Amino acid sequence: MSRVDAVPAPLLVLAGVVSVQFGGALAATLVPQIGAAGSVVLRLLIATALLLLFARPRWRGHRPRDWATVGCFGLALGLMNFAFYASLGHLPIGVAVTIEFIGPLTLAAVLSRRPRDLLAVAAAGVGVVLISQALSLPFADLERTGIVLALLAGACWAAYIVFSGRTGAAFPQLEGLALAMVVATAVVLPFGIWDVSVHGTSAWDGTVLLKGLGIAVLSSVLPYSLELLALRRLTPAVFGILLSLEPAVAALAGLLVLGQRLDPIQLTGMALVVLASFLVLGLGASRRRQPDLPA
């Protein structure tokens, strides 16, 4: 047994959740310097290089259908990162992640087709209204751009989940992920070039590159690897419960790294989303799996 195998799988997932959210908080400090697209391209370039070096994927011998799957996976991955990073320029990270989480939450509820799960998603929708301050601010003062971008990131996150599973079934180990990262980088590269033309190359100093390396490791390489190892020993129910903590961890990262504080109404909305996530991805998944358990 390796040292990693000796670590409880839930701890691996929690470490991945913390890693990706603190990576997002670090990215929020980089976006004002080189733009959202530039930040995404920098992160993806470094993460892709690391994954290609580690996974060493085969470029030949794949069926056209498998390439189509990887292409859709990479497209969802690239757009998800671009939309989320762009939303960080308008919203606190805790708010952005909570709104984004509606994507996978809705996907889980639709696939389950249970009325209770649909009600949970409706409760999460109320939570999003609360954290977006739609009831307490004039309509003209709402950060509508940030909310739309976070919702777009959530939709891409749902697509990412679907095509991630298909890619994992079609390619061994991290091979499909490495190829998808190449596609994702190609998708956002034109936007990154445009960002460079707007912000100039003078902002790309050593500090920016170090932040890019940190974001690539914290937001891509480390969490993807930890989740892959954990899911070999973890039920989907437990994984869903742990994943439900993402909005809360994002709020904590925003507070510690960025000094972003949420008011009580926004925290109430976040609690609704976390509760709905627990019901749909955690408790609901556990009960759906119950008939498959041995007596």
TrEMBL record:
PANTHER family: EAMA DOMAIN-CONTAINING PROTEIN, OS03G0707200 PROTEIN-RELATED. It is found in: Cell membrane. Residues 145-281 form the EamA domain. It is a multi-pass membrane protein. InterPro entries: Diverse_Substrate_Transporter (IPR051258), EamA_dom (IPR000620), EmrE-like (IPR037185). GO terms for cellular component: plasma membrane. Its main location: membrane. Keywords: Cell membrane, Membrane, Transmembrane, Transmembrane helix. This is EamA domain-containing protein. The chain crosses the membrane at residues 37-55, 67-85, 91-111, 118-140, 146-165, 177-196, 208-226, 238-259, 265-285. It comes from Janibacter indicus. Pfam families: EamA (PF00892). The keyword 4Fe-4S does not apply. Belongs to the EamA transporter family.
